[in-house]
């Protein structure tokens, strides 16, 4: 099921019956009546979701910068498949109203293309990596992926296997960097084509720098030129670009050795991809009397054997013995946040209760 609208239609359209479409309708109507501010919630991927109030002018600035950066003019046909309760979905609605796009709205799902007719084509879509991965796994929707136009991925890292598939796609796919506090993204990087890069390039008018920890801070029109401090460790690669390293709060101290969990995750994922044995997993830690914090790996159960010995030996060979997990746990499912990110803290907390 889908619902089509734009800034002219919304003035006369009847309220749609499905509850989710009513949420989008209510926002669009409030926007057309010049509501001055909106209260949203952070995703909760690094802590409890918290309310945040954003001014209309911040949302407007963000929308126009995205339209300019991705060259999305008036009349752009956009598929809205992200949750309109959160900033990424909200910004799709704002872009539609501010940039005069035609919006096709579907309720968030793993494979949004299953909810629109096969003859529908789009110029732009924003989605999370899991949605694009699911589209590519389905033999029917895989044939339709070129109908998406330009693709913007955000909300979670792009895995090794998905990135390899993206490299072979004919349509441009970008990854975003941002958060609720920065009113969606402030930087983009192209994942495929001749201009593909490992670096994020800042949107026009966005300033940045590093604090004493080496963590990124940004300011720009979408933040009312106020500085937003992040916990992301980055390497500045040019006057307008940076390379993401990992979150500073994802570094543990194990026996005096600092271990970046994001680096462990990337290493394990690459090894599993290389040996043709993909698993969903993440690294974390648990208390240890001698080490202080002990590195662990949490793996989602599958019906095939997890090659623990192979993975650990490869980790030693490619990087360091210090990055090898001291214990591997298996769980049936990962606990997710409302925006479908893995809630690592809650998953591990549940794991420990079961283990005890």
Task: Report on the architecture of this protein.
- There is one protein chain.
- By secondary structure, this protein is α/β, with parallel strands linked by helices.
- The protein is built from 9 helices and 19 strands.
- The chain has 2 domains: 2-204, Rossmann fold, CATH 3.40.50.12780; 255-355, GMP Synthetase, Chain A, domain 3.
- Strands 1-5-4-6-7-8-9-10-14-13-12-11 form a 12-stranded mixed β-sheet.
- β7 (150-153), α6 and β8 (173-179) form a beta-alpha-beta unit.
- α1 crosses α3 (87-99) and α2 packs across α3.
- It starts with a strand and ends with a helix.
- The mean pLDDT is 93.
Overall outline: globular
Mean pLDDT: 93
> How many distinct domains?
2
- Annotation, overall tally of beta strands: 19
Oligomer: single chain
Write the layout of secondary structure elements.
Elements: E1 2-5, H1 19-32, E2 37-41, E3 51-55, H2 56-69, E4 77-80, H3 87-99, E5 102-106, E6 124-127, H4 129-137, H5 139-142, E7 150-153, H6 160-167, E8 173-179, E9 184-190, E10 200-202, E11 207-210, E12 215-219, E13 228-238, E14 241-247, E15 251-254, E16 257-260, H7 261-274, E17 281-288, E18 292-300, H8 308-318, E19 327-331, H9 344-355
Parallel strand pairs: 4-5, 4-6, 6-7, 7-8, 18-19
Antiparallel strand pairs: 1-5, 2-3, 8-9, 9-10, 10-14, 11-12, 12-13, 13-14, 15-16, 17-18
Provide a short characterization of the protein structure.
By secondary structure, this protein is α/β, with parallel strands linked by helices.
